[in-house]
Design a protein that fits this description.
Number of strands: 11
Structural class: alpha+beta
Strand order of the largest sheet: 5-2-4-3-11-8-10-9-6
Distance between the termini: 51 Å
Number of helices: 11
Helix content: 25-40%
Strand content: 15-25%
Length: 344
């Protein structure tokens, strides 16, 4: 069982809510949590080495950067699964790729630079991986999005925090119609894993080609958040290492009288979408990603959602194996390189 000290739990909950848009963010986090800057740095370094923190970086809305994104499901022959996963993983726009217990057994998220490139890429991947069939399950309506794993300390099992979500403020009317060289580089730099030191943004600027000023980078940080281009800038945890030992992607077939509010209100549901229906092939439009600390808790959450919503027809698509979980690097030259190697 994963156990955390009071300080570790407090800091983990704080950094999931957002990293402050200031030159010394860990000093400000220390002020928020009643710790010194060094205590915050030491704690985060330890938790990262321990494998609890996956990364700290900007979480961007790909479609607002001009990309075309969707969930894709492939039906792959059993003997071809590993080979297919390697082929799919080679694409830089694949962020998540899982083997799931279903006829459609490989599920991945794909981002491409435009719709035509997306469709061509799916066709290439399907052909090269020997897919028998595939589904493109577009996000038709977003109902909820936000992974927050409440961390309890070993001495405080009812841990609550009062931290504001410091990086999700939106300003109406602020928009980017196009990205110049400097703003594109700002996107690239803010996707880097934030170094755990006293001046982390100065550190990531060392790899900049046209952007070298910390004040400019933080200005882009603020503008991207305000425009909704960057959903948040925060720590992402490894679920199992953080004490959440199980999860499942669930797909539901609601009727006209179904109540989906319970899904939005559930703290166990991190992602909630209505996705594309394919009549006769896929007729479960409501997708809910559920996280729990045990198989028993997961089953209890699913049963409760079914009872409250009245939806009895649903699928539990448990992940058998994680093939890939890596943030997409938008505006990376890797996209052009993949096309060069794979397009005829």
């Amino acid at each position: 069982m994963t156990e955390f000290t009071d300080r570790e739990a407090l800091i983990l909950n704080r950094v999931q809510k957002g990293i402050p848009c200031v030159g010394k963010p860990f000093l400000e986090i220390g002020n928020d949590t009643g710790c010194s800057e060094d205590e915050v740095l030491d704690t985060l370094t330890h938790l990262k080495e321990k494998g609890v923190i996956r990364n700290i970086s900007g979480i961007f809305e790909g479609e607002k950067l001009g990309y075309y994104l969707s969930l894709v499901a492939f039906e792959i022959p059993k003997e071809k699964i590993e080979e297919a996963a390697t082929i799919i993983n080679s694409h830089p726009g694949v962020s998540h790729n899982y083997l799931r217990d279903h006829r459609y057994n490989i599920w991945f998220t794909l981002a491409e630079e435009d719709k035509d490139s997306f469709n061509k890429t799916v066709s290439i991947l399907a052909s090269k991986s020997s897919a028998l069939d595939f589904l493109i399950l577009r996000n038709e309506k977003l109902l909820k999005l936000g992974v927050y794993l409440n961390i309890e300390s070993k001495d405080n099992k009812d841990n609550k925090d009062n931290f504001d979500n410091v990086t999700t403020h939106k300003e109406a009317g602020l928009n980017f119609d196009s990205f110049d060289e400097m703003s594109r580089e700002a996107v690239l730099l803010l996707q880097n894993d934030l170094p755990i030191d006293k001046n982390p943004f100065k550190n990531i600027l060392e790899s900049g080609k046209v952007l070298h000023d910390e004040e400019q980078l933080l200005s882009y940080f603020s503008k991207f958040i305000a425009a909704g281009i960057m959903r948040r800038y925060a720590a992402v945890l490894k679920h199992r290492s953080a004490g959440y030992k199980t999860n499942a992607m669930t797909a539901w077939k609601p009727n006209d009288l179904s109540n989906t509010d319970c899904f939005k209100e559930s703290k166990s549901v991190s992602h909630l979408y209505f996705r594309t229906i394919h009549p006769g092939r896929w007729e479960y439009p409501l997708f809910a990603m559920i996280h729990a600390k045990s198989d028993e808790e997961l089953k209890s959450v699913i049963d409760e959602l079914s009872d409250k919503s009245g939806i009895k027809d649903f699928l539990v698509l448990s992940s058998i194996k994680e093939f890939k979980k890596k943030r997409v690097r938008y505006f990376s030259e890797e996209f052009n390189e993949w096309k060069r190697l794979n397009y005829d």
